Give the backbone structure.
Amino acid sequence: MKGPNKSMRTLALGLGYFFLYVPILSLMVFSFNDSPVVTSWTGFSLRWYSALFADDALLRAAWLSFQIAAFTATAATIIGTWAGYVLARMGRFRGFGLYLGMLSAPLVIPEVVLGISLLLMFVEMRGTLGWPEQNGMFTIWVGHVTLCMAFVAVVIQSRIRDMDRSLEEAALDLGATPLKVFFSITLPLIVPALASAWLLSFTLSLDDVVLASFLSGPGFTTLPMEVFSRVRLGLKPEVNALATLFILAVGTCVIVANRLQVRKETQS
């Protein structure tokens, strides 16, 4: 029975990879298509990459999204790490239910509701404090951090709960303060989880359309908003070229990070 079972598993795995990666590969192939029609191959050409680098609006949107995603991932990882540590190590303190509910709210609240709530908050702040003067990069960043830190907290909480506490307890017995234990022992042990949480936050921020649509202002159009507005009028080959560059950049980063992690584990 091992033969048929193995064949079925291989077939299922192959179909899964087919549905996942064939659309991505076809997108990359058609980014080199000479035809302006994205579904009709007429010959190899780099014309759409030239058109992409001449498209100032698309490049500005990409640069803005990269900036927001990087700032969001960093802030969400810092805040979410502390939140996840509290959930994993502090027990059921007074107000734990309220704390857990508020932290988990962005995971279950529809992004439309979250976007409207944040927009109303900024409007009220602008009327009361005169700040922020307008919606833009800062307001989008706040919205993305609010969303992403909840995901970071879940990742970090699960990693810390699975850790062996003997090292931390030994350090505490030797006189180290809880803060010293966290930075000297706990934090180095959860570095892979931190990297995963940062990448997850970066991807969520870079991919977001709903929150950015509510919180953006004139001159602050993110890449997903720009692409979405263009797709509604018809898919352009420049978008295929941009997506190909994104895929190659992300794939390179993942391969390099994986090689470094494997090398580190081998050396240790």
